[in-house]
Target: EF-hand domain-containing protein
Amino acid sequence: MSSAKAKGGRSSAQNVDSLGIRKIHSRHTWKLESISHGKGQPVSRKAVHYVIDEVGKRKDKFHFSKQEIESLCTIFRHLTKSGDKEKIDRNRFRDILHNTFDMTDDILMDRVFKAFDRDNDGQVSMLEWVVGLNTYLRGTLDEKIAFAFTCYSLKGEKHITREEIFQLLKSSVLKV
Model:
């Protein structure tokens, strides 16, 4: 019997996902608590420092600590699966959204992918991953509104058309 169970607490294995990431979820926050550094490839210090430096140059407010950024980089490395490929493609990203955030709407998953893929190369880099999660998980209300607007605007314009809203609402209705 584990010491956590002996003390009446929950076993930490109950909150650990397939990547070895222990997540604590409350109504409004996600906290990355710990990562097991098992089989996955190590994240190069150079890559992590690059992401931290780039984040520091950005005008947008950043809501992760340096340690959390390092954890996000490690998670990213685990998700990329291979050492050659330093990016997450659309299909893998959709799997992550589905498995981690219980997203099931195909249109919305594609739009979230486009919002993360800032350079429009069809893949999410480590920097895009950290910047996207910064807004998605910890953004201010204004940042999240801007993110949602980016997801809902099909053509990337400064406004959302009636047709775009109709398509989103239509796709969000449950089919019985």
Q: What stands out?
A: The chain has one domain: 40-172. Residues 1-14, 16-40 have pLDDT under 50 and may be disordered. Strands lie at 21-25, 30-35, 88-89, 123-124. The domain at 40-172 is CATH 1.10.238.10 (Recoverin; domain 1).
